[in-house]
Amino acid sequence: MTTRPAFAAASTPTWWSDGVAARVGAGALALLAGLASGCQKKEAPPEQKSLPTSLGSASNDFLATALGNGLGLRAELASTSSAWERVVVYGEDSALLLGRDGGDVVALRTRDRGRTWTSMRAPAKAWAEWGVGADGSLVLMTGNRDKAVKPPPPPKYLPPRLAPIADGELWSADAGATALSGPRPFFPDDTTLKGAKIPSGYAQPARLEGDGVGLLLEMKGAQVIASALADAAPSGTPVDRSMREKLVPVAYGHPPQLVAIAGAAITVRPWPRHQDVLRPSSAVPGALATVNSWAQLAAGPQCEWGSWSFRRLAGPQPRLLGISGDRALAMPLPASESEWLGCGPDAVVTETAIVDPTDPQKRRRVPQLVRCGLDGKCSEPQSQPFTIWPEAHERTLKAVATSAGVVAVMSARAGERWGLTLGQSSDRGATFSAPRTIGEGTTDRGRIELGALVRFSKRVVMLLSADVTGTSRRGWYVLASDDDGTTWGPP
Length: 491
Prior knowledge:
mainly beta
């Protein structure tokens, strides 16, 4: 409906006599009112966002799921081919989703618990890793790897073997930036970092205070802590060989901490700022290093929330290592072959396997979710979070620890059949309510996929991708729950 001009919407002016008004028709009255108000531009009608009309359908703005409607993200933020490899919650309402989109790396950021988002991207080379500051500032390092023959499979409990990293260039963004600045070269450098490499193939830069960046390199077989401040050229500080600690080339915690293996101990110290001396380290209580610990730690944190970074140290008796800016812990986890880990500010979620109670032959094993508080106490679930398909299928799980319990999402695929299901516990992981379908189907068209699951201080958010009905493209959509997963809708 067109908005009437302001003058026409007002009461009849005092100079307009009843006699004149009686002799002038309604059309002439509207015309005179328009002339009196000048050539005022008509206001545009408010934009109408289209709602999906059936379950599983999607517009540019909304997606209809069995849980509730999701809110669409602008298409230019990130394509649905983006694979979100890392989720960093760095504030009560703020998070970063870090991943790859074809030949680019992408950072998707929210500062209002998933209501609105911004994104940054940069071209990526064979190696690309992010460093995240305690305030959400970013540093990106990307470079080439040495060409090498395909390495043999790693032994059990070890991450994949990677080709050595040959060089690196730097991009950065402060906490309020909407774009990355760069690139600029970091290593090798003929003046200060000549011949520097990362032979393990694993590394992650540390985002330091004052627009600084740190990275662990090797030069002539010796460990070197390289650093730079703002736009200054990088410099390197050799690590004293007599220290007898093997430093891990990945930052843990926010602000970043430097982890090392010292004999049978796992140690931690603050990551040195630009040209600072290396401070003495402290052993993490209860953390015993094995022959596999360094390689597992070098693969980086599996879950990051607030000041914490968590890593599941796999083995016959798995252990959780947690490192924050001012605290570190180690504790046992239930035995499991699963590699993933979910977390929150005071608990983690891990996957175990139990015998399917519905299998008459008692051979099939199905997933179980165990919530472990950072006090070392783990739940003993009395029910299953999901109903498992009897036919052969592929499935993936993602979960977060909420204040009340656990929220988890399972994706299952058998041929063209697909399903996305929510599991929820409201009693700290002791029992799970009946699983709820998010979406399901028997063809690829209309398939809904989970991109990320994020727990804020008082909200859980899931990022879903789906086909935009009537088009050939897909879009991202956000669903949120403010009651630990019971009800869902737009954030």
